[in-house]
Amino acid sequence: MFSKLLEGVDRALVNKLVILHTLVIAVSNYLVTIRFNLFPGADLPLFGEFPLAAAAFTFPIVVVATDLTVRMVGKEAGRAVVAMAIIPAIIASVLVLLALGDEHAYRVGFASGTAYAIGTMLDVYVFQAIRERSSAWWAAPAISTVAANIIDTYSFFYVAFAGATDAEGKLSWIGANWHIVAQNNTLTKIVVGLVVFLPAYGILLKYIQSKLDTDNGGDDTPTDPNMTTPVVIKPAPKKAVTKKAATKKAATKKAATKKKS
Which CATH class is domain 11-215? Predict the structure, then answer.
């Protein structure tokens, strides 16, 4: 199904990227059930006690993981990686939440798939244009950290919790205040993404580029700073056998045979 999109791309790399996306989403969907007030007892305008879901500190990884995916395997293969990760991520999320007895497990799983597809496809198609036009590695992930997190977070909390009820059928706190949690999570994700994950991603990107240069036999071809073309791991070049070396090898073999007889 995805073979055409992944043609020429290192499959081991694709598998690792799919696992990365799946793990980050599954862990974040578990952490979204852990909610707390960042400023207990405070009464901040618009923010109150600043209620948060713990996933605000891990989900920004999805944005940089998507950026990394597109840079390493290209736009079309990146779309395939995203599509391959959606279903396993939803299944893993639902199973984890069901095991924990969360009554919103199915809604969270569906919301996760919806938000992930919207956010990552937006990143793959819209922010790819920024990657291709800007030589600064940080431009696309920085802009996508802001824009994608706004769209992703609000769509997730709306689908997962808007109007949600408790075990008694009454409107739950998160069902009535999902927009406040979404607002606070969005701000936290953007700050964490720009301050923590973006610099860390820059270091990781530099390391991967240097490693790919080494694995590709150390050729002198300039590396595309935005890595928008698919990564194909080239085997080390074989040494050419000259005519002189071949003649010498044949003579040595003949002499050894003659000596043995």
Answer: mainly alpha
